[in-house]
Amino acid sequence: MLGTGPRAAARQAAVLFTVAGLLALIGILNDPVHTGRLLIVAACDLLLALIGLLVPWRRVARHAPALLGLAGFAVLGLSTWSFGGVAAGTGPFLVLLYAWAALHFPRWILGLYALPATLAYLVPLILTDQPPLVLGSAAVLMPIALAVAFLIEAQARRLRDDRDRLSRIEQWRAAMINTLAHDVRAPLSTVRLVLEEIAEDADQAQVAMVGAALRQTSRIARLADGLLDVQRIDSTGHLKLDRAPHPAHLLVKDTLSYVREDADVRAEVDEALTVYVDKQRFEQILMNLVTNALRYGKAPVIVTFARDATGDRLEVRDHGPGIPDDLRPRLFGQFAVGGEQGVGLGLWIVRQLAVAHGGQATAEAREPGVAMVVTFPPPPVPAPQQ
């Protein structure tokens, strides 16, 4: 029912007419003399509500639901006549109809509404011989209704324009991410092949340098995959994981091999612990957390992995100044940090990958520093063999 377009407009009108029909039925209790007239009003309102709900509005012209508004004005006039010229309920509902129209239709339709709306208000008053003072209320009500409608229409139009602009920006961003990630992969494959060829004939000193280059090449490839992950998460809301049991200490050791050799990063992981995760995504989580700790915190960076009754807990702690208070509420959001040192996607990706595993990512204050904590659910219990 919420939203824009012919279908949403018609369904919202259906709600308004349903309310009007029910109010007409309730009005019978206060005015049993005009029961027959009020039943006709209620029937007309409910019929318009059914039309709003049942007609396939997506197949008709964009502004076709505006016809419901014209019919609604006619029923309003019938309602005023049914109540003997009492317009206490007609005026507010007329403004409400105008407000509904302003949310969905352009100004020229609101202008076209002016004459039928005025007639719907005045004709029943004239037919029931209301005094000039009551007739003169139209001179106040109609300008107010139009002014309210034009204000709502202007605001709604601006919001639609902003939404369209953001949609175009998002399409451009998605195209840029996809293009960048795919274009990075092709030259990386060539670089990796060349480095592997060099490694075959390299001496001991060169092997170490080529090995470091190969590790960084793999890291860049994972960064490209991370960009694609951002796009997949934005478009589908979830990631498909390939979870399996892995030795936790080997996962941590392999991941930390990509960290520069002079970095003071220490690991404390039980060698007997097996973790049930997606290997590539776990490495991505840990690498993002360690890189973030080295970039914004202070050494030493301590990596621990432990298990308790609730599941597995990965913790990456630095000994820096901690998290500024103004950054804390948006720490795990997209582009939360950014600036000259990065684009600010690392912690957002960490949280998304943690949630995909069924866990969560949080930041805990330490003295000194901060600990980034990612929890994982406990590994599944193997089914008993029969």
Automatic annotation (TrEMBL):
PROSITE patterns: HIS_KIN. Pfam families: HATPase_c, HisKA. The keyword Transmembrane helix applies. It is found in: Cell membrane. InterPro entries: HATPase_C_sf (IPR036890), HATPase_dom (IPR003594), His_kinase_dom (IPR005467), HisK_dim/P_dom (IPR003661), HisK_dim/P_sf (IPR036097), Sensor_HK_Regulatory (IPR050736), Sig_transdc_His_kin-like_C (IPR004358). It is an enzyme of class 2 (transferase). It catalyses: ATP + protein L-histidine = ADP + protein N-phospho-L-histidine. The chain crosses the membrane at residues 12-30, 36-57, 64-81, 110-127, 133-152. Its EC number is 2.7.13.3. Keywords: Kinase, Membrane, Phosphoprotein, Transferase, Transmembrane, Transmembrane helix, Two-component regulatory system. Residues 179-380 form the Histidine kinase domain. GO terms for molecular function: kinase activity. PANTHER family: HISTIDINE KINASE 1 (PTHR43711:SF1), TWO-COMPONENT HISTIDINE KINASE (PTHR43711). This is histidine kinase. It comes from Actinoplanes sichuanensis.
